[in-house]
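The records we work with from here on pair a chain with its fold. Taken together, the tokens spell out the fold as the letters spell out the chain. To see the layout at work, look at the sequence and tokens printed below.
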Amino acid sequence: MATGTEAHAPTASEYIVHHLTHLNNLGHKQTELVDFSVFHLDTLLYSVGLGLLAVFVLARVARRATSGVPGRFQAAVEIVVEMVADQAKGIVHSPESRKFVAPLALTVFLWIFLMNAMDLLPLDVIPSLWQGAYAAAGHDPAHAYMRVVPTADLNATLGMSLAVLLLCLYYNVKIKGLGHWVHELFTTPFGSHPLLYPINFAMQLIEFVAKTVSHGMRLFGNMYAGELIFMLIALMGAAWAGTLGSGLLWLGGVFAGTLWAIFHILIITLQAFIFMMLTLVYIGQAHESH
């Protein structure tokens, strides 16, 4: 006889909401308002961890690099490094600036690629392990939130785009001089007539804001959508447990998940490349005088 206290399987909406909720410093308390005291701990953990992993791997490759016939991994790294260097050379024409900008672009590409690649892990593996650890510690596993794709968090992508904006402002001042850049803010794009100063300045501000927001939103939107599609496919695979004849639906979920994962490899690579290229373009624009 049912007692009414048995744990019930989550509904589709509960499953998705749970997977879209971040582990934060408030514990199981979630807020829908803008609150700068809230930190998404899972985003911080995976983004910093993957960044350190990239540094570790590249440092090992650099130590073991040989001038003779390179190994396959060294050859792959050299191809990526040369690709980024060529792109930087074609966009940022200052050799002095490229000493910093080219390594920055390489860091951006590899870091974002690794963060995006977390989306290829089986959806429930890490969250399930986290729920088990949460339950073992005596807490309610229903509140064990964990998201493993940092770039599906708008805070992370906008944080990176804001960092690019700060670099653009720095190079505007460094290359053009503070006085010339301020003059440019008030005289571009419509001319140097005093009546046009407010309009020019407003247009410049809109351009900076639009570039920064679109830079971060583009990466976030694509990765968030990809993560959501994986969740919907996972629901297909889970449907076999409660629906007659749904074994075919489960097989369809496996097939769809495999196809989407293969296609998603292109997406995660392309999004890392686009973010890197826009970083180079925006910094390159900061070197140009009007």
